[in-house]
């Protein structure tokens, strides 16, 4: 699946980032700091941006949070960070944007949930206010429908219509249709109010993998708006990673999706940047984009009773990712490099030859030597207690000699 094979959608400019219209799929994330904690929010945004998040969303839920937004953006600019900041609004966004024009101007995009913009008679005028502010400040809007906060008026209407059918549909089908219709009808209303089509991004998030795939397939077939993908409430650890990868992988392989977020529940003490790394790795392993040199390593078996190759693979992978913020501006194309760290003679030499640079460490009972291959040719055989440090140096030397400086 090449970039040219993706479904062509409207291109939306979010700050300095292009979303849709054939542009590379964009990685985004969201802070979990209290937005009123300006220093803490700035720190986390910088961490997310450094890790590779190209858009960062923050919660704007109170007057104090709205007041903090311009200061957050100013401090980021002072630190040399130009990552676009998105305002996440629920329930009271119309009031906050009206009362705090500096907040409205500082944000690069607004996120509106049709189910949380207002209830009953208040819904339409409050939605209208949000769109009018977007038009006034020339900001794009993500109309983000969530299964957990679905617009009940749309669902009720469809349920009433369903009861009149000779063969009523199942509730799950009605719910899927309500999610898609909520997004499409809100987008149509936004256009009626003057928001250009290339200022609209849609998303329809739920936490069930198969349902999410079905919803986005339907949504993509019925519009050409730019689409934001994400499995909401994906969960923690391997469960969240696997569920998000399964859902988004299927959709992106079908050409659906212009920007993604991996909604991982952070493990205690874990960095918020994990969701950014997972998003990048999904895109890179599927061949859509390259972000950092990839490490190929075997899983280990009875031949690899030592954990030496595991430690080396981890060290090299960490080193490569940590260096990328510097390397991306220094070495053109280094993000496409592959490094192999293999644990025994079975597949070690072959995989090492196929990588740009690779090492085949000795397995249990094998000769205590480690041949190194560069571009398919054995260049040196490492021995002794300093194999890891010497291979580390060889990787750095390979990068310096094979990737041109900008």
TrEMBL record:
It holds the Pfam family GcpE. Pathway: Isoprenoid biosynthesis; isopentenyl diphosphate biosynthesis via DXP pathway; isopentenyl diphosphate from 1-deoxy-D-xylulose 5-phosphate: step 5/6. This is 4-hydroxy-3-methylbut-2-en-1-yl diphosphate synthase (flavodoxin). Belongs to the IspG family. Keywords: 4Fe-4S, Iron, Iron-sulfur, Isoprene biosynthesis, Metal-binding, Oxidoreductase. It comes from the Bacteria. One of its GO terms (biological process) is terpenoid biosynthetic process. Its EC number is 1.17.7.3. It comes from Methylomonas paludis. Binds 1 [4Fe-4S] cluster.
